[in-house]
Design the sequence.
């Protein structure tokens, strides 16, 4: 007569060795504690911890450093994980039953000499308050949403995770900020900060496509957030309905991975440059006027900073920064998407970002030309170590605002 499943389990457990989670916890702790490479040495060898649960269970959380071999694949895969049959093996599952069967298989069928099953499984392990590692995986919905990224070998699931973890700050939700904001959101950049103290005006809608006619008069940060959320709920929007100035810039930009500069005035651009060089944050900068666009990536200490190119602001009367200027409505779309592309490259660490290069786009001629730009060894900002620029100095930026006021 065949034994009942309960009786069978009892028989199996009487034939294998079991180990309490507290002992496993100590073994793992000792291994993590000894960073001198002692783990692989010794005649007995460190035990290998193997999780025999199904893939979805393992993905939901497992013991740190555990190898994963689902019980159904034990016979075919264990040799790849533990080639030496004298190596001690500790198996665990959810509650200690499947690992007991697996221990019997390893010992009696496959000839492993030192196999133990952890009693109570990961359930008891968690009850004891021991650490569980949750591997980060894209959800089913995310795998579908970003499937065209997953198909590119330079991006893939790891790259998509980098994008989801990235924090990008948009300076302005205007002509350039509109396309960059929309496309970075669509690409799955997980956190988008937006600095803008303006409201949506009818004259914006010729180019600022993140806003729409229904939202006239609404704060641009709110309107942009609504569009981004509707496009991709994965994205967290952080709103700064303020003007960037010397009193708030350090607080706002710290912690962002990349800054997208769509600033349309010189004073803020210099202020931004000094602060980002100090904090080591790369800036993807673009500007537009008429039918012409410019773009460059300023990565502190890898290429020139903005002041290396333009040591001083132009005379106030020549600065096209303080009033309204004409621009082809399509142009900020072109330049904004070049910016978004550079941002994605910086986050993923792929390609050749436009560091030390100024790209000049002439929409009427349909030409893109490139000017090499070098670091200025005499640069008042980036020729110094960031540590040499004291906190006191950082708080005291020149009065750039007066510059703009002087332009009338
Ligand atoms: Zn510089």
Sequence:
């Amino acid at each position: 007569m065949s034994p009942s499943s309960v009786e069978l389990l009892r028989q199996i457990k009487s034939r294998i060795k079991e180990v309490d989670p507290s002992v496993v916890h100590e073994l793992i702790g000792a291994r993590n504690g000894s960073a001198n490479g002692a783990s692989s040495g010794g005649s007995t060898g460190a035990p290998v911890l193997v999780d025999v649960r199904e893939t979805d269970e393992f993905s939901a959380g497992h013991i740190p450093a555990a190898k994963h071999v689902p019980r159904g694949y034990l016979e075919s895969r264990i040799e790849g994980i533990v080639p030496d049959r004298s190596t001690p093996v500790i198996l665990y599952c959810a509650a200690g039953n499947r690992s007991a069967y697996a221990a019997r298989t390893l010992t009696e069928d496959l000839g492993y000499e030192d196999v133990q099953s952890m009693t109570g499984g990961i359930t008891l392990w968690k009850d004891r308050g021991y650490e569980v590692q949750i591997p980060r995986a894209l959800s089913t919905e995310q795998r579908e949403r970003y499937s065209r990224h997953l198909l590119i070998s330079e991006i893939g699931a790891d790259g998509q995770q980098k994008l989801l973890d990235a924090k990008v700050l948009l300076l302005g939700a205007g002509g350039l900020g509109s396309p960059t904001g929309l496309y970075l959101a669509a690409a799955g950049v997980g956190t988008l900060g937006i600095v803008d103290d303006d409201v949506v005006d009818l004259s914006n809608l010729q180019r600022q496509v993140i806003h729409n006619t229904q939202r006239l008069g609404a704060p641009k940060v709110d309107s942009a957030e609504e569009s981004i959320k509707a496009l991709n709920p994965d994205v967290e929007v952080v709103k700064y309905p303020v003007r960037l100035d010397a009193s708030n810039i350090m607080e706002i930009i710290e912690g962002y991975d990349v800054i997208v500069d769509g600033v349309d005035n010189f004073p803020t651009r210099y202020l931004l440059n000094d602060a980002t060089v100090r904090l080591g944050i790369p800036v993807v900068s673009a500007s537009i006027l008429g039918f012409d666009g410019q773009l460059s990536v300023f990565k502190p200490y890898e290429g020139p900073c903005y002041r290396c190119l333009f040591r001083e602001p132009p005379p106030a009367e020549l600065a096209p920064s303080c009033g309204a200027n004409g621009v082809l409505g399509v142009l900020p779309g072109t330049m904004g998407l070049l910016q978004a592309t550079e941002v994605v490259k910086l986050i993923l660490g792929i390609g050749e970002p436009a560091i030390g290069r100024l790209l000049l786009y002439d929409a009427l001629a349909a030409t893109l030309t490139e000017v090499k730009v070098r670091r200025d060894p005499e640069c008042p900002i980036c020729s110094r170590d960031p540590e040499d620029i004291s906190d006191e100095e950082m708080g005291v930026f020149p009065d750039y605002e007066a510059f703009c006021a002087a332009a009338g």
Observations:
- The CA atoms of residues 241 and 403 lie 23 Å apart.
- Residues 33-43 have pLDDT under 50 and may be disordered.
- The longest strand covers residues 283-289.
- Residues 304-305, 307-308, 376, 379, 381-382 surround zinc ion (CB under 6 Å).
